[in-house]
Amino acid sequence: MTKSGKYGLVALMRNPGVFGTLDPFIEDGPVLGRRVANVGFLRALLARDPFEAYHFFIADKPLGDSLAENLARIAPEIAAAGRFVVMDRRELPARLATTRYACFHLSDCINHPSHVARLRNAYAAEIFPITGPMHSLSYPDFPAAFLRHLWPGATPRDCIIATSRAGGLAAEAFFDTLRRGYGLAHVPGPSLRLVPLGLDPEKAAASPPEPAEKIALRAELGLPEEGALVLVLGRVSHSSKMDLLPLIRALGGLFAPSEDEGPALPREAVTLVLAGWAEPDDPFPQSMVDIGARVGLSVRLELRPGERRKQKLLRASDVFVSIADNPQETFGITLLEAQAAGLPVVASDYDGYRDLVAEGETGLLVPTIGPAAAVADGWEDDAVDMLAPVLFDNQYHLLLAQRTAVRTDALRRALARLLADADLRRRMGRAGYERVRGQYLWPDIIERHLSLWDELWSLPAPDIATLRRVAHPLHLPYSRVFASYPARALAPDERLRPGRAGAAMLSGREHPIVYAGLDGFIQADDVRKLPFLARKGETAGRLAERFRELCPGLDADAAAYHILWALKHDLLEPEE
Q1: CB 233 within 8 A of CB 313
Q2: Could you tell me if 109 and 133 are in contact, meaning their C-beta atoms sit under 8 angstroms apart?
Q3: d(CA 571, CA 563)
Q4: What is the DSSP letter of 265?
Q5: What's the rounded Cα separation, in Å, for the pair 336 and 424?
Q6: Is 6 a residue whose pLDDT tops 60?
């Protein structure tokens, strides 16, 4: 079944239901690829609007209030129809028990997928798909996050979305390492599927700029109107994105080439523009300017540009360069942005970059060389592996990146080829623009998500009843672990009676006081029944049974929680 949409005929989901998530998808802070991708996904999903409703379970009220405002601004029609529901995460059990969810989609595959799966298995009527995309994978605590995926309650409908082929192979390597290290060869894990990130259609709406537009934009931006502009856009950091020294050396080499590399490039023929995020007090960006000056290269800084200025920089430039050497990078949205602006791309043949650049057609890939997998005497880690958990992120990522070589000679040749041939730049830029429009716009990526959720529904899954009591081994069993803390546990045969507060409640002189934050766990109207049921004395076990009879839908755990809470607040007390 299909319907007509702005981007042609699109398939309708076989299981529309309700969309659920724990994440707002809209975050404050530095402009990073993950944040840009999450906002793009949410906007495109709501524009497509394939679900009956959208449930957001948010960690705190201020964040929930902010999300509600953003949702009303992004999708006013959905908001006006009351189809957005922003809730506290403590409402998850009740909502899972009463709502037919089409899927739960999280903003990453790291933090909460397996936790949502445990809640789904315990409370939901069906095993709906749970999905989350990968972003950076290189943090030393992430093996523990991937270990959470390997548990007896996992099903094929739980899915990690690899955004690049390299990222998918990294996820497989995570699971292989964990299964071998912990003896988990037969423990199920999530499915793994490839769906790339996308770009907002607005960024690829305008055709690649003509030379006159480029000159006008350069004048507006205060950049040289003569010569070629080589643009780098991203985090300006040698420890979290890319080492820019090989690029400066490659460009400097064009001013004094060897005999077999063609004529020298005049120094005024090229300007390097470094644009992107950097901390205000970080000396690294200025050091790149100073080093460029030593080799006769003009380097301009454009730190923390706004979105409009960033788009102008892209359209004003001639060549886009990104020589990522850091395992933090998994996809590379800036490469899509550059191609959408009609720029040919020179990129390192690394991670997801090789998916995004059609070699020789939309740009040129520069070979990279990295370390062989460390295996010696049965050990599979080396000094950096062992140090990483005790270092700061920028420290171990610098160590990792500095052992990945982007071939400077190949980079120099790629730049020379593009800088010498304006027609080639235009052809590659146009091809990249068409490729992004055909494969990487968010509306098309959303269709791939819809197809994925339908596919996951079709995969076999166990009867959910068999998973109800399957505990997650990495969920802390508080009552068992901390059993030694209380003086004793409440026994089922222990007799209880109304306490002083309970007796006052029976006579109408007191009312239950329930703190904020206990919503969904303690119901004031229900706890009034406990002193009444215990007025002649009753065992804790029988009291729980009778309490559940008077409170339909209350499970054994909730009944026990109410009884202990009543003991805490003197509504009940043990018989002496």
Answers
A1: yes
A2: yes
A3: 9
A4: P
A5: 19
A6: no
Neighbouring-strand partners of residue 300: 273
Q: Characterize the bridge pairing of strands 53-58 and 2-5.
A: unpaired
Residue 524 has a pLDDT of 87
Element (H, E) at 442: helix 442-458
What is residue 263's predicted lDDT score, i.e. its pLDDT? 86
Q: Can you give 412-427 as a three-state secondary structure string?
A: HHHHHHHHCCHHHHHH
What residues have CB less than 8 Å from 243, skipping those under 6 apart? 323, 325, 401, 402, 406
Distances (CA, A) of 227 to 127, 169, 249, 270: 60, 41, 19, 5
User: How many other CB atoms sit within 10 Å of the CB of residue 356?
Assistant: 29
Q: From 565, 537, 534, select the one nearest 547 (Cα to Cα).
A: 534
Closest CA to 422 of 342, 488, 497: 342
Q: Give backbone dihedrals phi and psi of 471, rounded to 5 degrees, phi first.
A: -75, 150
Residue with tokens 């309490």: 547
DSSP assignment letter at 39: H
- Quote the pTM value: 0.91
Continuous H helices in 157-316: 165-182, 211-221, 245-255, 284-294, 307-316
Return d(Cα 104, Cα 558) in angstroms, integer: 25
Query: 3-class DSSP state for residue 56?
Result: strand
3-state SS record for 513-564: CCCCCCCCCCCHHHHCHHHHHCCCCEEHHHHHHHHHHHCCCCCHHHHHHHHH
Structure tokens that stand for 359 in this block? 């070699």
Q: Could you tell me the domains of the chain?
A: 2-198+447-467 (3.40.50), 201-439 (3.40.50.2000), 478-574 (no CATH)
- Per-residue pLDDT of 160-213, as tens digits, reads 999 999 999 999 999 999 999 999 999 989 999 999 999 999 999 999 999 999
Quote the percentage of the chain above a pLDDT of 90. Answer: 84
Tell me how far apart the alpha carbons of residues 314 and 229 are, in angstroms, rounded to a whole number: 10
Tokens encoding 99 = 């709502």
- For residue 236, give both structure tokens: 């300006």
| Backbone CA torsion sign across 107, 111, 114, 118 | negative
**Tokens standing for residue 104:** 């739960």
User: Using one digit for the tens of pLDDT, what is the confidence trace for 373-404?
Assistant: 766 455 677 889 999 999 999 999 999 999 99
Find tokens 């360069």 and name the residue: 321
The three-class DSSP label of residue 65 is helix
Task: Say how far apart CA 176 and CA 192 lie, in whole Å.
Answer: 13
From CA 71, how far away is CA 39, in angstroms rounded?
11
Q: Would you say 164 and 197 are in contact if contact means Cβ atoms under 8 Å apart?
A: no
Asked whether 320 and 338 are in contact (CB, 8 A), the reply is: yes
From CA 325, how far away is CA 322, in angstroms rounded? 9
Average pLDDT score, the chain: 92
Sign of the four-CA dihedral 198, 204, 208, 209: negative
Higher pLDDT, 237 or 320: 320
Which is more confident, 84 or 6? 84
Alpha carbon distance 573, 564 (integer Å): 10
